[in-house]
Design the sequence.
């Protein structure tokens, strides 16, 4: 194998209170144990299937970007990214190391496939990116205070309307796959889609969680991602809450899997669902390419 290859995709919620529970030493409390036990398998799996690079699709929450500037899709091409201060100080987690060479290649290829990406050479990363890393990697030891591999942050605007459609995200995932698999170094790349599942943080429906919607979403993400990509954004808002729209990011990771390009269906290595954590339904899936 001389070219980079996408070996697996990982999907997970990014609930900021999970980061706080870990950082404040509350992870052994029963409330949080019920969440973290869903990731015991995943931490072991990541150790046994270590990627060279993680392409991490996430959303910024008005931390690096604001109403002053709203890129729909932004790729991080920097050498490193600092954990952001989200109001309680930056999380005490390692600096995220990037992969500028692969990121620049992906930017070139995806833009030439007609998707407009914003190229970001300096950016802080918030819970949208650091909480998925914490859930999958655990707390890095002080003796080796680093994430296990470089990460390419890929930020999607799902905070300020207009947001991209599920279908555009799904097609973008296909373009990202072509980009990664045309990089001429034998890198093992995982693509992670994060955010979701159902939740609403604002207005009269604050606290909304929809288990039926979430489990149907997981079923269809596995078996019929193209059909799922046809779901209009208003259905996410109506059924999964205003912040449930974060789920369109999962379609980017799913669109990058081999079956979408005519290969074999992925294997479901792990599936987990738990409600609630903070105001959010926690969903998690690991799909492996054969
Ligand atoms: C919560 C969930 C989010 O996705 C977020 O960005 C902020 C808060 C919550 O569940 O409280
Ligand atoms: Fe969020």
Sequence:
């Amino acid at each position: 194998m001389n070219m980079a290859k996408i070996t697996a995709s990982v999907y997970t919620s990014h609930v900021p209170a999970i980061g706080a529970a870990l950082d404040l030493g509350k992870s052994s409390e029963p409330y949080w144990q019920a969440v973290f036990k869903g990731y015991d398998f995943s931490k072991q799996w990541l150790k046994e299937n270590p990627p060279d690079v993680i392409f991490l699709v996430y959303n910024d929450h008005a931390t690096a970007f604001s109403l002053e500037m709203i890129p729909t899709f932004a790729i991080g091409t920097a050498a490193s990214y600092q954990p952001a201060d989200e109001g309680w100080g930056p999380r005490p987690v390692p600096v995220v190391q990037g992969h500028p060479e692969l990121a620049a290649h992906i930017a070139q290829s995806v833009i030439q496939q007609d998707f407009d990406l914003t190229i970001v050479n300096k950016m802080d990363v918030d819970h949208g990116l650091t909480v998925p890393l914490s859930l999958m990697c655990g707390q890095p030891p002080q003796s080796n205070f680093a994430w296990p591999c470089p990460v390419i942050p890929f930020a999607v605007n799902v905070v300020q309307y207009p947001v991209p459609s599920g279908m555009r995200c799904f097609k973008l995932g296909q373009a990202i796959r072509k980009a990664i698999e045309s990089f001429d170094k034998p890198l093992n790349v995982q693509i992670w889609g994060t955010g979701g599942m159902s939740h609403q943080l604002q207005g009269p429906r604050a606290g909304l969680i929809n288990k039926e919607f979430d489990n149907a979403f997981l079923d269809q993400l596995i078996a019929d991602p193209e059909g799922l990509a046809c779901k209009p954004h208003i259905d996410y808002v109506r059924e999964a809450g205003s912040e449930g729209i974060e789920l369109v990011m999962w379609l980017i990771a799913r669109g990058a899997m081999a079956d979408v390009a005519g290969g074999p269906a992925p294997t479901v290595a792990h599936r987990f669902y738990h409600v609630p954590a903070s105001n959010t339904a926690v969903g998690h899936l690991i799909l492996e390419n054969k």
About this structure: The two ends are 15 Å apart (CA to CA). Residues 19 and 232 are 31 Å apart (CA to CA). The pocket of 3,4-dihydroxybenzoic acid (ligand 1) is lined by residues 14-17, 61, 199, 201, 243, 278-280 (CB under 6 Å). The longest helix spans residues 166-180.
